[in-house]
Amino acid sequence: ENSEVERRGTMANRREKIVEEILSTEDTYVQSLAFTIEYFVKPLKEKEILDKQEISWVFSNIEVIYNLNQQILAQLQERFSNWSEEQKIGDVFLQMGPMLRMYKDYCKNYTTSLTTMQELSTTNDEWIKFLEEKDKRGPGGSKLPLTAYLIMPVQRIPRYLLLLSDLLKHTPEDHPDMRDLNSAYTLISEIAGSLNKFIQQAQQRNLVLEISNQFIGLKFTLMEPHRLFLKEGTFRKVTTHMIMQCYLFLFNDIILYSHTHIALGATKRYQYKGFIPLSTSWVRDMPDTDKMENIFQIVGENKTWTFLADDKDQKRAWISALNECIEELVKRNPTLVDQRGKVLHRQPTVFNMFSATSKDYDKEIQDEEKVKENLRRVSHEKKSSLTKEDQPLIPKSPKKPPQEKDDRCCACSII
User: Fold this and answer.
1) How are beta strands 282-285 and 295-299 bridged, if at all?
2) Nearest Cα to Cα of residue 397 among 206, 252, 283
3) Lowest-pLDDT range, 73-87, 113-127, 130-144, 325-339?
4) Could you give the CA distance from residue 51 to residue 126 in angstroms, rounded to a whole number?
5) What does the pLDDT read at residue 201?
6) In terms of Cα–Cα distance, which of 331, 364, 370 is closest to 348?
7) What are phi and psi of 310, to 5 degrees?
8) Phi, psi of 406 (to 5 degrees)
9) Are 318 and 382 within 8 A, CB to CB?
10) Cα three-residue angle 90-91-97, rounded to 5 degrees
11) pLDDT number for residue 237
């Protein structure tokens, strides 16, 4: 009997701490929403730096969300100020839960928000100056940028789910709040499920934006609606003059690379060197030589990039990921088959440098011919099975930035 009393006492203490965390995080969240509206939305409207449509694209329905969460916060504060072991909060989320569906509009708009801000950063000098003044201000001396505040509503619904799940685990079955908590958790789970696709997209877009901000001298807009970040890695890039360390960032349609890594405090920065479009590139698995190992090439329309992986596992993983990206691009745009055919037989003269045999090269060409034929067959089948109305949407090709000066050797045409 004493152990049961102790167990329930421990559970009650834990339950109170969880409710306190719910209240604390809600208070911080509402303050952040208020800050965003007070220091960003209102001045932008008053100074007419952005028009009404641009305000909507950047901030969506954040003011409506703020009003909703003010009500949730007020009710939670009232309950916690009169706390007892029998106090309830499940009904607060159960009553306000249906209105949380308005978060869907915000999450759906998030990609538009990021792309609009990037566009404004290249076309609107007043916007640029405004952000320079505002980004260093925040609640309690915070120095978070605007994008850090705009991602908060995207993260809030999953956060509710985690907190309510924890609260349920520490609420006795016979507690007065148990029934409402279960119903509230089920409701918010359904809302989170309907938002999951948009939340994942928003988090992916935010990741692309973070990578874009890490690059110095980037010559084009990395943020595109279709672009997803997949992985990054450190390699050695081979040229006729030297072998240098480089950093590769793989997206679903391009590779971004840098030769220089700069550490500014806790922030990583990369000097932009170039990008590789995957839609018209081939991946060559090169044989090891006496001089080098774990070699692979990416053969483009006018250029060949040669990389050395740290080990066979890294090489295998990246070749697989690259080929998956390329295959998906071709499936979405079957016309790429003909464009890629022109690239296939570009001579890998760097083989001379590696002392590879002609037999090795012949095998690579044979393997690539098989890949090309398979891609052509898959693309043909896909086109044949679709009506004109059913044709898949083809993502917009990235705008090609100005290419860096070509450092290809005139004698052998290798970089």
Assistant:
1) antiparallel
2) 252
3) 130-144
4) 12
5) 81
6) 364
7) -70, -35
8) -75, 125
9) no
10) 90
11) 92
CA distance 184 to 187: 5
Q: CA 287 from chain center: how many Å?
A: 34
- What is the per-residue burial (b if ≥16 Cβ within 10 Å, else e) of 215-234? beebebbbbbeebbbeeebe
Task: Name the token pair of 183.
Answer: 């119903």
Residue type, 152: M
Sign of CA dihedral 99, 151, 49, 67: positive
The structure tokens listed for 130 are 């405004």
Q: Which amino acid is at 106?
A: Y
Residues in the chain: 415
Please state the separation of Cα 139 from the chain's center in Å: 26
Q: Are 237 and 203 in contact (CB under 8 A)?
A: no
- Higher pLDDT pick, 227 / 7: 227
**Three-state DSSP class for residue 121:** helix
What secondary structure letter does DSSP report for 110? H
Looking up tokens 């928000």 gives 113
In the block, tokens 């809302």 appear at 191
Asked whether 114 and 151 are in contact (CB, 8 A), the reply is: no
Q: Write down the pLDDT at residue 374.
A: 57
SS3 203: helix
CB-based burial of residue 213 (10 Å sphere; 0-12 exposed, 13-18 middle, 19+ buried)?
middle
Widest CA span of the chain, in angstroms?
89
Residue 48 has pLDDT above 90, yes or no: yes
Query: What is the C-alpha separation between 348 and 357, in angstroms, rounded?
Result: 12
Between the alpha carbon of residue 266 and those of residues 144, 164, 258, 262, 269, the distances in Å are 15, 33, 19, 10, 10
Counting Cα atoms < 13 Å in the Cβ hemisphere of 332 gives: 15
Q: Judge whether 72 and 25 are in contact, CB under 8 Å.
A: no
Band (pLDDT 50/70/90 cuts) for residue 249 is: very high
d(CA 356, CA 287): 7
User: Which of 52-56, 199-203, 355-359 is least confident?
Assistant: 355-359
